[in-house]
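hey m, so remember when u said the tokens were messed up on ur end? i reran from scratch. heres the input so u can diff it against urs
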Amino acid sequence: MVFLGSVIRIQNTITDFDGTSLTPDSQEIKIYDPDGTLKTTDTSPTLEETGVYYVQYDIDSSDKAGTWKVVWKVTKSLKSSVEVFVFLVEAT
């Protein structure tokens, strides 16, 4: 469970159509609050192992509780893919 004032780690595994882990040419991770306001954009996620990346985001205690959205765009060889994640933030 994620609470206002905490840090969330968002992880994504990047694979090709056969499920083989790959290293993308570029990535863009956007995090939106429940109102749809863009809170941050990250283009340099941390590499954990081949194909596995993560970002950490500090949810301020003054932010809004509700359903947050992450839009993770990956580009490899001029082809892009977008994945959308959601997570619930609750007040303490």
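this time it looks ok to me. DSSP finds no helices and eight strands in the chain. if urs says something different then somethings off w ur setup not the seq
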